[in-house]
Amino acid sequence: MKILVCITHVPDTTSKISFTDGNTKFDKTGVQYIIGPYDDYALARAVELKEQHGGSITVLNVGEAETEPTIRKALAIGADEAIRVNAFPSDAFFVAKQIASVAKEGAYDLILMGRESIDFNGGQVHSMVGELMGLPSVSPVMVLDIEGSTAKIQREIEGGKEFMELDMPFIAGCQEPIAEWKIPNMRGIMSARSKPLQVVDPTDDGVQADVEVFELPPAKEAVKLVDPENLDELVNLLKNEAKVL
Amino acid sequence: MEAVANKSTLKGGEFLIKETSAEEVFIPEEFSEEQKMMAAATQDFIDKEITPNRDRIDNMEEGLMPSLMEKAGELGLLGVSVPEAYGGLGMNFNTGMLMADIIASSGSFSTAYGAHTGIGTLPILYYGTEEQKQKYIPKLATGEWKACYCLTEPDAGSDANSGKTKAKLSDDGKHYIINGQKMWISNAGFADLFIVFAKIDDDKNLTAFIVEKEYGGITMNDEERKLGIKGSSTRQVFFNDCKVPVENMLSERENGFKIAVNVLNVGRIKLGCGVINGCKSIASEATNYANERKQFGVSISSFGAIQTKLANMAAKTYAVESASYRAGQNIDDAIEALIGEGMDPSKAKLKALEQFSIECAIIKIHGSEVLDYCVDEGVQVYGGMGFSEEAPMARAYRDARITRIYEGTNEINRMLIVGMMLKRAMKGELDLLGPAMAVGKELTAIPSFEQPDLSAPLAEEKEVLKKLKKSALMVAGKAAETFGPKLNDEQEILMHIADMLIEIYAAESTILRTEKLMNLYGEDGSKLYQNMCKLYFHEAVQKIKNHGDEAVACFTEGDELKVMLMGMKRFTKSTPVNTRNLRRAIADVMIRENKFPYSLYS
């Protein structure tokens, strides 16, 4: 089984977010980068599926050279080889086109990625890749088992769970509890260096979206506690302060 | 960034009489991407397996600690420094230091890890026969077997060679029969393998044995009820006619004390280095709490009194880190050089560690005392909550205390530092006499009025550092001249001299790292490091002056004392710095980042 796992290179969840150049660029100073947490689940499940069924894992990232340590971490966790599309991942459609282009070449049985990245949280790439490749795409996938050429999937839907079966190949946007994050073991880290990491040029499709300005959400205000006996005050606050009634 | 440290030609202990350039020291920022990834993976292991289970660990839940050790083994954490031929990763000494550093924040687990990978595994690795290594090391490197180290006895602690445990050859000559009692044995409760030190018949010196639990004749008392590291198994172990095959003797008869001492040398430096991540996590917790805790309508982190504590934690930790990896790399370089000369790798490691045993002892003392500072002030920042078991500081405070005691008490180590310096001088291995005499001459000569150019960054600190070394040489030289071989009995004076040497090494390492970082990040980009360096240096100068003044007043009087005190004044003279501003600047970064002010491994 050939598995392609697409990973994002995103700021650590504890990073302080700020912007430069008149709020048009993300300030990378002092920011540590990680594999997108949802992508990390996808990778962990891929490693488990490979253990169960054999095969190989290719990890794919659309990013500039600075993403290579993140890619090598994925290799340390258990991917066999890596491809980096040498381009800034400017928008979801651009990234989806790059993934589709690589994926068409590789004839993968499974294309896994996180349900969304945690920088822009678009959550669009999996369905775009599906559309571009003419393959089904499912998200958010919480259970993924393979039997023969069929996958058994569980995903969360409004108000419940959906169980489905579908034939490979397909694209899955993954989230917990599909697998537990894997800590790379020391031997994996040492062997990551010798695993192939191929750098390819992007398809020449242009970037379609551009950032005009970044804005931080308003700071959270302090929580007001209202005594359960004092309903009048609650109504008053909801009406006059929060203005939701 | 790859390691770019030029090889230092400095031998162990020579830091006191020679200068080192920034290019010669290794700094942790230079760890390779691979080593940093290993550190990050180790941190992930702590976050996932240790931190959520701290209470269960400290309650000694049956089977939990050994299962955590096995998980660490699966990740390869137990075999980082074990050669590949025996199932390890064969990484260098400094990578092993890095592992000890990161594991440090895991409290009780850290002790179990250290006892297993250090004193439990290394005696076989360094002194075992090929058969012994093949038989035992792979099992230890994977965590399939856990090891412990049985040296201490009820009446033989710091004086380890006075142990009473006996080994007697069986009538058929096939076994040694071991009888005796050992205490404070870390990992005893779940160990499969015991490194046991005993005297054969009426030998003067100890002999070491590899004892499998399966051999029988091993019983134990209940777990000790301890002040801290409550989750680490610590028991008394009794050997009652324990039959050990003769082939399980480790090294030669009566070589046990040497094994014990040499293995403790490794443990020592790793223990010193093995506080760093603990200090960082305490500083981070304290900063976070100080930011959240509001009094008088503001976060307590806005108060100078709290900022002082946070900044001190950061600067001191920065100093331990600078000194640890500098020494670690020196040891690696020495190992490589000795192997290059044709020495067997195990012997080379021991020899290199012996060469740097002064630095090992310095780092053990310095690290454990910085950790104690951090936990103490950590409790204080938390105020009343610091005293509650609901907050993390109470446990940290208790867990830290052991580090000043085990692997050689800090008092024993202080005496070793000076003792080893003087011994090497006597043997002609370390030229202390020449520099000490030059300092003596300088004392009675008219002071030079030449003003060195101090315009370069850190130039003044480096100039003062040269003089600090002179102050230590002056005090040590005078003490040696006054007492001769009886200096060994003057423990108070030895302690003062040791403290001077510790501060000199730490301060110098900090300056050299900072200089290197200034070259890497530029003057502006390295402001934080400069501030921590200046703050640490200022404190080191004060401490050196205090210890020196007190020491000379212990054994000189009248005019001689006046000359000595004048020397101390001259050699510790430095421009006052505005410590308030330095601390505020450091604390500002911590408060903004809500954690320890810099991170090396994501």
Automatic annotation (TrEMBL), chain A:
Listed Gene3D superfamilies: HUPs
SUPFAM superfamilies, sorted: Adenine nucleotide alpha hydrolases-like (SSF52402)
A Gene Ontology cellular-component term: cytosol
GO molecular function list: electron transfer activity
InterPro entries for this protein: ETF_a/b_N, ETF_b, ETF_beta_N, Rossmann-like_a/b/a_fold
Domain Electron transfer flavoprotein alpha/beta-subunit N-terminal: 23-209
Keywords: Electron transport, Transport
CDD domains with a match to the protein in the record: ETF_beta
Pfam families named among the record's database cross-references: ETF
Domain of life: Bacteria
Family: Belongs to the ETF beta-subunit/FixA family.
Protein name (database record): Electron transfer flavoprotein subunit beta
Organism annotation: Marinoscillum furvescens DSM 4134
TrEMBL record, chain B:
GO MF, any single term: acyl-CoA dehydrogenase activity
Domain Acyl-CoA dehydrogenase/oxidase C-terminal: 255-418
Annotated Acyl-CoA dehydrogenase/oxidase N-terminal domain residues: 32-144
The organism's place on the tree of life at top rank: Bacteria
Cofactor needs: FAD
InterPro entries registered for this protein in UniProt: Acyl-CoA-dh-like_C, Acyl-CoA_DH_CS, Acyl-CoA_Oxase/DH_mid-dom, Acyl-CoA_Oxase/DH_mid-dom_sf, AcylCo_DH-like_C, AcylCo_DH/oxidase_C, AcylCoA_DH/ox_N, AcylCoA_DH/ox_N_sf
Annotated Acyl-CoA oxidase/dehydrogenase middle domain residues: 148-242
Gene3D superfamilies: Acyl-CoA dehydrogenase/oxidase, N-terminal domain, Butyryl-CoA Dehydrogenase, subunit A, domain 2, Butyryl-CoA Dehydrogenase, subunit A, domain 3
SUPFAM superfamilies attached to this UniProt entry: Acyl-CoA dehydrogenase C-terminal domain-like, Acyl-CoA dehydrogenase NM domain-like
Domain Acyl-CoA dehydrogenase-like C-terminal: 467-570
Catalytic activity field: a 2,3-saturated acyl-CoA + A = a 2,3-dehydroacyl-CoA + AH2
Keywords: FAD, Flavoprotein, Oxidoreductase
Pfam families hit by this protein: Acyl-CoA-dh_C (PF21263), Acyl-CoA_dh_1 (PF00441), Acyl-CoA_dh_M (PF02770), Acyl-CoA_dh_N (PF02771)
Protein family membership: Belongs to the acyl-CoA dehydrogenase family.
The name this protein goes by in its record: Alkylation response protein AidB-like acyl-CoA dehydrogenase
